[in-house]
Design brief:
By secondary structure, the chain is of the alpha/beta class. The chain is built from six helices and six strands; from the N terminus they run αββββαβαβααα. The protein has helices at about 1-10, 70-75, 100-110, 130-145, 145-150, 155-180; strands at about 15-25, 35, 40-50, 55-65, 90-95, 115. β2 (about 35) and β3 (about 40-50) form a beta hairpin. α1 (about 1-10) runs parallel beside α6. The protein starts with a helix and ends in a 14-residue tail after the last helix.
Length: about 200
């Protein structure tokens, strides 16, 4: 799906966003841990990488007790799927949870620019590019019940549901964008509506 979107519309890999999202995992299993924000109940953290349009291009699953910053390297390594098609300059937008010297050293090592919200200051999310990753996390948790509450215990099943949800998100966006950008002779009067 990402290749089709890149071919027709074009992925914006110059502006990336990363953020973590904790969800419930009452059955436990792989990639789960005690969630500190949910009274120590079992939970899962999803570290999501999205490109400039807000499309998810990589996800790392781990226990809810993991901090966001150690998951940054494996999340950014999901860019390796694009090989040599990466732009020369990449900017990564992060929230205050990543505001540390270790994160800046990692981004400098990878050759990325960054914009990190400083700790202790309030910045409206619509004044940054981070609203895209927040919207993507909302698509995951509100649009797919199996991602809102993780019931599968095996890592393969968890990864499969996450990748399927990402493919559906990209397909929906591809249909919406191509409807406004392309014309053809037997085009229907109204765009296809997802239910």
């Amino acid at each position: 799906m990402l290749e089709a979107f890149d071919w027709l519309i074009g992925l914006d890999l110059e502006h990336l966003s990363v953020d973590g999202c904790c969800v419930k995992a009452p059955c436990g299993g792989d990639n789960t841990g005690r969630n500190p924000t949910d009274r120590g109940k079992s939970g899962q953290k999803r570290s999501v990488l999205c490109e400039g349009h807000g499309l998810p291009i990589g996800v790392v699953l781990d226990g809810a007790n993991r901090h966001d910053s150690p998951l940054l390297r494996p999340t950014l390594e999901r860019l390796s799927r694009f090989g040599f098609d990466l732009p020369e300059r990449i900017r990564v937008d992060l929230d205050a949870g990543y505001d540390s010297g270790v994160t800046r050293e990692l981004l400098a090592e990878l050759g990325c620019d960054w914009k990190i919200s400083p700790k202790g200051t309030y910045i409206k999310i619509n004044h940054t590019r981070r609203w895209m990753i927040e919207r993507t996390n909302a698509w995951h948790t509100r649009g797919f019940g199996l991602l809102q509450v993780v019931l599968d215990r095996s890592e393969k099943a968890q990864q499969a549901w996450t990748h399927l949800a990402n493919a559906i998100i990209v397909l929906r966006r591809l249909l919406k964008e191509s409807w406004t950008q392309f014309r053809w002779d037997d085009r229907p009067v109204k765009p296809y509506q997802w239910r």
